[in-house]
Specification:
Blueprint lengths: L5 H16 L10 E11 H5 L7 E5 H13 L6 E7 L3 E6 L2 E14 L4 E15 L5 E10 L13
Parallel strand pairs: 1-7
Antiparallel strand pairs: 1-2, 3-5, 4-5, 5-6, 6-7
Length: 157
């Protein structure tokens, strides 16, 4: 039986944010199960049941493709993120998976030093324990508070 303590869930979120913030996105897909769901959506669309979102991936391979596109194909102004992640709250445990809600704030730092709040919201996760004993995301839905999402959503939230 997997243990879904706040300490383990907090460590998962901290490692996830560190990976993105330190521009180590090649390691980002490893936080997910092979069959997974990663969505970035607005609160209004999420509440209306619109699941496709601004970003949609339903396998780790799709996440790896996103990283490849980020590094090799996409053209965007260089920037980086700094995540502030709140404490995870376990909503329930069912069939060996924890449903977890975690608030987040993402600050974007542009190459010229300009800094702004880029996104705020909550992660709605289904977390499982992988075969290696590490917690992984079976689902991560980033529900952004604002409808105004910058088209410069290149780096994962």
């Amino acid at each position: 039986m997997a243990e879904f303590s706040q300490e383990r869930l907090g460590a998962l979120n901290a490692a996830y944010a560190r990976c993105i913030d330190n521009d180590e996105v090649e390691a980002w897909p490893a936080f997910f199960e092979e069959r997974c769901l990663y969505v970035v959506n607005t609160a209004d669309n999420h509440a209306a049941g619109m699941q496709a979102g601004l970003i949609y991936a339903d396998t780790r391979a799709m996440l790896q493709d996103r990283v490849s596109a980020l590094r090799e194909a996409n053209v965007y102004e260089r920037h980086r993120y700094r995540h502030i992640v709140g404490l995870p709250f376990v909503l329930g445990i069912e069939d060996g998976a924890a449903r977890v809600e975690t608030p987040f704030l993402v600050v974007r730092i542009m190459r010229d030093g300009g800094t702004e709040v880029f996104a705020s919201g909550r992660y709605l996760d289904r977390v499982v324990e992988g075969a290696d004993g590490q917690l992984k995301f079976a689902e991560r839905i980033a529900v952004c508070d604002s409808q105004n999402i910058d088209t410069l959503l290149a780096i994962p939230l």
